[in-house]
Amino acid sequence: LVRKKHVLSRLQDALAWQALTVVQLLAPDERLCMHLIGTLFGMLHSVEDSSALNLLAEVLVRLVVELKSEQYLYCILGESKKELCKATTMRSSLPTFSLLGKLADAIPGFADILVVKHNNVVDHLLMGLTYPNESIKAAVCYLYGKLYSSPVGTEQLSGHFEERLCGVFLNTLGCAQTKELQVNCLGLLKELLKSDHFVSILMNNSKREEETENPDFLEGKNPLPLVLKKLLLTRDEMLQAASSHCMAAVLIHSTTRYAPAFIHADVPEFLFECLLCKNEILIWSVYCCLLLLTEERLFFSKCHTVYGIESLVRSLQGVLLLNNAELHKQGLLLFTEILTRQPVEIKLFTNRGVCIEAIDVLMKTVNCPVLDVVVEAVKAVAAFLRKDHLSSPPVPYEELQKLLEAVLKRCADLSPSQSSKRHAVSQKLLLVGRTKKDRDDLPKTVCFLCYSLCVCRLAVEFQDDFMAQENAFTTPNSESKDTLSNFSEFLLRICDSLCIPMVMSYLERAVSPSVTEVFISTLNTLFTVVPSMQNKFSKKLASSSFIRLTLELKARFCSVQSNPVLNHTCSSFLCSLCLNLYSATEKRRTSQEGKFGERESLL
């Protein structure tokens, strides 16, 4: 054995470093090549030492690859078929399965030859998958994975999978104990999940007892979600990542059809738990999977988001410490989708501490140096600013004020070149015929307005909620800055000092109906943000020619029944502004008449 291993090692070195010389010596004599290959193949089934078997397989594969002749492949396939047929035990077939898997890995087209011209070998593979030895099952699954990675193999073995392999494979994956078998099963599953047909079979497979070694294994009609959930529970991060990747591969075919099975299996709960790690590959896979699950309403109605939001926020905190902008963006995208799609009737943040942690995460991402991350962060802020997300008393007004100030100032600080780089495709039609500076400023302007309007409406909604007026837990007879009144004054102040001047500067150069609509709507909402300041604010707008500006905008964009939404917004703004001015005039006149009457009475 030692001498054989020495010779094999020397032959391996020669094929690795002097392959051309070896081929020039062997290739002219086909009989010699066939004899050498036959001898090496025979040794595979006469040697029991595992290291020698691995060396034999590597040398045999390298030799066939370097000789570049199909006749040697057919020779090995023929010998393999004979060996599998005469094998007295399945254990003796392990070297053959391993060799075929390595050949399929090394030689393009080998899998096609095997399934087309030697398809009876596949029957032996199925027998190997039912044999109670995980090394044999692992070798069989690896070879199956190579066969199903080929378009020809997928087509030829479609019926084989549907009629014979599916149930056996699911049982094998579910009962796998060794890491090698688990990994090879997942590799095969990954190839199968590329086909919509195979996904449909796997997700609708009804377990038949004759197909399983254990009749009690995985009750129900959809064992795949349960099998993948079982892998999430292994605490092995590589298996967890592969499991979540396979879930995403299923869901991407049809979230509507397949997501309910995963949700009913409580898979989201364990996906959220997997986020409490530092493995970037695992976190990315889980983000992708959860993102697909957010498309199904059942994901929210089963309260998985309420359970998992803390894990997500903590995950984002950890991810921000990593130098991986794509992971930051994916996490923020998931956070935004959850914030946006969460039903109003199901409160997402039941813990005020988690809500404040979420604000802190958004603050950090808004101040991120990577602009693509900032874009996703600003979208997340907009989705976060919903009354039902923030209405758990006491409302964190101070933290919100810091967040909004950071967002608006970051938007203002963006240079034109940076802003135009991220310009949305949907805005392209608005840019025709404008100067470069106008085109650069438009996204920044829309950004200002959308978030200003969002926050202003939030403040107005809080005015109708007694519990949101101020911090109910403030010490009696003490003043608190954490109140709706202070927050609303901040909004009016920052809109007056930052947003309105910037938008007006833009409108001096170019006018966009979309910008105008949001701008006028924001101004209209500001009247009610601080009711005590509405008369003063109205006077300032009137003295700054906003009545004339609004009438000009209506004349320009709202004639011939065009832009009805803009027309309604402008009319509503003018009505509110004029009523406020009239009310202020009436109060002043009434006050003056009262004073005049008092002087008359005194005289």
TrEMBL record:
Gene3D superfamilies: Leucine-rich Repeat Variant. GO terms for biological process: meiosis I. This is MEII1 protein. The lineage of its organism: Eukaryota, Metazoa, Chordata, Craniata, Vertebrata.
